[in-house]
Amino acid sequence: MRTSDFDYYLPEELIAQDPLLKRDSSRLMVLDRKNGGVTHRHFYDVTEYLRPGDCLVINNTRVIPARLIGHRDPTGGVAEILLLKRLDADRWECLAKPGKRLREGANISFGDGLLKAQVVEVHEDGNRVVEFSYDGIFEEVLDALGEMPLPPYITHKLADKNRYQTVYAKYDGSAAAPTAGLHFTPELLQQVRDMGVDIAEVTLHVGLGTFRPVSAEEITDHQMHSESYKITREAADLINETKRRGGRIISVGTTSTRTLEACAGKLKRELKTTLETGNGVDEKGEPIWVRADSDETEIFIYPGYEFLVVDALITNFHLPQSTLLMLVSAMAGRKNVLAAYEEAVREKYRFFSFGDAMMIV
Which of 79, 95, 134, 248 is the most buried (most CB within 10 A)? Predict the structure, then answer.
């Protein structure tokens, strides 16, 4: 398959620049992957497509104010870095501007010296490793000086930075929000629980590599960037119990999907299982689909992929020719997805991070 097979026309005015006042008032397109049919609803109607015994899987990562703007020492030129991945207490892998001037040994000052950074390594892909120095607690310094790293297609300034966080965000580490979860409110989540649907929390710290355009002509030549994930024993137990009793695993977002499928694939490879049910067995001989795990993943899901855990997906509308659009197409079929996107354009849905949602059932 070629990257161009995942292109579509999108008028610029349909790119959502601001979040809606009420999170769950966004529109919801429901796509039936069996026949390609679509239904137009609002996100607060999502409970009508859930059943008692299902399990909703959410990504509880928290976006850090990862964009830092400072000045190069001693020249005073403007420098910007974007934190991608924490390597140890004070060393981070980053994107940096201007790259040509931020060579190994370059020094940057932020907030009149409250935070200082030195470039200690330059990777082949252009990413930098920087080492920070500061007084106090790094997270507090970052919160005071950093900005939310909004995607480049959002040009408006975000008035409330909590609107780029899910209401269930817990663990710092993402450079971008798991945007499918932005539609949920505490009240809607409670409504989901009250109807007998379990909610399992996983963690995948979202890196910008997930959102980078695919430059390779053939999609199989594209290399994904690594992201760290964690599935607790509690979450794994909920997911496995749901599958055993015939309930559905409904993934909120492509990040939750990648977490579950990466864990399941790793389990299946390690156990070399040929089971018809599950990807392995537990100590009691019961089938399991995932297990408690903490690792890095570069999983790339595109059409032809057979899902090992996920049965349904809640997601946003994604960029043309993106790996996220390819993942959605793997679940619902490329032609079905592109036809649904064409209808979304006709119906003037709002696209991308602050836009409307799609549920694939």
Answer: 79
| pLDDT tens per residue across span 153-204 | 999 988 888 999 999 999 999 989 999 999 999 999 999 999 999 999 999 9
| E-state strands within the chain | 27-31, 38-42, 55-59, 61-63, 67-73, 78-86, 91-97, 107-110, 115-122, 128-134, 171-174, 198-204, 227-231, 249-252, 280-281, 287-288, 293-297, 312-316, 357-360
Which two structure tokens, joined as six digits, stand for 314? 């809640």
For residue 50, what are the CA distances in angstroms to 43, 184, 189, 316, 336?
Answer: 12, 14, 12, 18, 22
CA-nearest of 172, 87, 175, 174 to 132 is: 87
pTM, entire model: 0.93
Domain boundaries, the chain: 3-63+161-360, 67-145
The domain defined by 3-63+161-360 folds into QueA-like (3.40.1780)
Smallest Cα–Cα separation from 19: which of 361, 358, 350, 359?
A: 350
Given strand 198-204, what is the order of strands in its sheet? 38-42, 27-31, 357-360, 312-316, 249-252, 55-59, 198-204, 227-231, 293-297
For the chain, give the percent of residues with pLDDT over 90.
85
Topology alike, domains 3-63+161-360 and 67-145 = no
Which DSSP string corresponds to 118-183? EEEEE-TTS-EEEEEEESS-HHHHHHHH-B----TT--SPPS-GGGGS-TT--EEEESS--GGGGG
Please tell me the CATH code under which domain 67-145 is placed: 2.40.10.240
Residues 212, 323, 345, 257: what is their CA dihedral angle, to the nearest 10 degrees?
Answer: -120
